[in-house]
Amino acid sequence: DTGVSQDPRHKITKRGQNVTFRCDPISEHNRLYWYRQTLGQGPEFLTYFQNEAQLEKSRLLSDRFSAERPKGSFSTLEIQRTEQGDSAMYLCASSSLGQGAGYTFGSGTRLTVV
Amino acid sequence: RKEVEQDPGPFNVPEGATVAFNCTYSNSASQSFFWYRQDCRKEPKLLMSVYSSGNEDGRFTAQLNRASQYISLLIRDSKLSDSATYLCVVKEPNTGGFKTIFGAGTRLFVKA
To answer: What is the Cα–Cα distance from A89 to A111, expressed in whole angstroms?
Structure first.
């Protein structure tokens, strides 16, 4: 296992288009998280899964955003009708159970909406 | 007040210097604490967890002060390769179990 993988690494899209990102977590990790990060800010929580169940969604996640983890393995994050304000780095992380568990992040998908 | 606050810096220090960062958190029920390191345009990577009694990993020492609700990171004998952004991370309980909050980071530049 080589860690958390995200695809694509970069995505440039026109405003109004839909985009989908994929995350493959570390296979032993039950929890999978999506974060968004803009320049000069720390990662902002979007949503997380424990196995296939989506347990929490941030208020930041508008109706245009949806995430799935259908078999409790990989996850997808879809953004519909993209806006310029959606431009950011989208980071996926996974962890084992337990409040003391740290996160392993993927390299992220950098989204630019033009 | 932000849930997790850090001095954004930048801290500019010469090689070999000792530098310390603080991070304050607002929720006294917070239970787990971490420092992550993030290089420019890269993902955050776990540097170390922070334990109540304080802990050390080589040149890095982390401390937790629950009474004053802050954690600190001390870097001794700074190396050029320590240049990065250091993110303070706090886990606090919520209805879904717990939530993890990242600070905005403190930027460190180590100069030759």
So the answer is: 6
